Amino acid sequence: MQFRNFKMVDYVVYGRGSFNRLDEILESHRKDGAPMIFLLDHFFRDSKLERRVPAKGNDKIIFADVTYEPKTSYVDNIARQLKDEYGTVSGVIGIGGGSTMDLAKAVSLMMTNSGSSADYQGWDLVKVPGVYKAGIPTLSGTGAEVSRTTVLTGPTKKLGMNSDFTPFDQIVLDPELTADAPADQRFYTGMDCYIHCIESLTGTFLNEFSKSYGEKALQLCREVFVEKPARRSGAEGWDSESDDKLMMASYAGGMSIAYSQVGVAHAVSYGLSYLLGTKHGIGNCIVFNHLEEYYPEGVSEFKKMVEKNNILIPKNICAGLTEEQFQTMINVSLGMKPLWENALGKDWETKMTAEKLRALFGKL
Ligand SMILES: NC(=O)c1ccc[n+]([C@@H]2O[C@H](COP(=O)([O-])OP(=O)(O)OC[C@H]3O[C@@H](n4cnc5c(N)ncnc54)[C@H](O)[C@@H]3O)[C@@H](O)[C@H]2O)c1
Ligand SMILES: [Fe+2]
Questions:
Q1: What residues does the ion ligand 2 have nearby, CB within 5 Å?
Q2: How many percent of the chain have pLDDT more than 70?
Q3: Phi, psi (rounded to 5 degrees) for 339
Q4: Lowest mean pLDDT among 13-27, 70-84, 224-238
Q5: Pocket test for ligand 1, best of 45, 66, 108 (most atoms within 8 A of CB)
Q6: Model confidence pLDDT, tens digit, residues 37-61
Q7: pTM of the entire predicted model
């Protein structure tokens, strides 16, 4: 385990308009009679992007309902329906934010692996490769486009299907697709990347591989969220260059945590999302806002970015919860052992206790 051997994404195409190459890219992956399945984020129903999806023959567009982050039951349902309807499919193409990309990865795997996706939540439990899968982000920040996991909420836990079979065979990084994202959502998801960088760069698992990517991603985040004129200060602000930069920040941030790990913000926000369904990007922001003790410089810069970009970070979301509910969140969070070890070192259990975590959740 000392030297991890990474399976990475096989093919990457980058650039404005690169989405137009999708048809040609998919051609050699089409199998006789088996359709391509396009999982399209439901935000794009009846949109220009929907009309550009290169669906033909018996291909199918399924609108991914990402009102909630992906659940194992949702993955299993889609995979079962596809198997019932077609037997097999040529591939699954996820077009959307991190939720849709994760859904596409998981459905691809469940086309060939038996049982429920809940059986594979964990590390290296997936038995066989899935069908061909491609990921096309329409939001930048999660790094889901490069990661070897797909985060799912199951009956007993929120945990990824972490395996060498999980990364995409192809990703299409077209910054044009992120242009219309609402400023708040773009910020929350962008901060996921910023937080990945801070957690990776200050973590005990850091090495030169992670550092190289993490520093670049952090620089790009700063260019976009700190150095650009604020978005509500007139005609300037967010522009196409910002979309280009944030898309590469997400990629590099994802590569950085691939060889290190995330940390306190992610461990705590997993607890929130498990109990309250708080979404990943905004949940990370809610937590990070209170982590001065662990990441003093990062949190101070984060607060400046929040103010500059005029973003609302919800407060008091845990007010009114019962002690039992707090305990659930604490248990989920403390279960994320590698994250704590990265953040606080091998003796993390002496530094982060249930009482300390209870106090932190109480502030959120
Ligand atoms: N696999 C991984 O490595 C990994 C890493 C981090 C997060 N995640 C997962 O990613 C998810 C969060 O992803 P996210 O932050 O990208 O958000 P998301 O995919 O949950 O989408 C958030 C909202 O934005 C909408 N949306 C997407 N693209 C849009 C666009 N271009 N314009 C307007 N609206 C758009 C969606 O419809 C949705 O309502 C979580 O489920 C999290 O668990 C996975
Ligand atoms: Fe994240």
A1: 192
A2: 98
A3: -70, -45
A4: 224-238
A5: 66
A6: 999 999 999 999 999 999 999 999 9
A7: 0.96
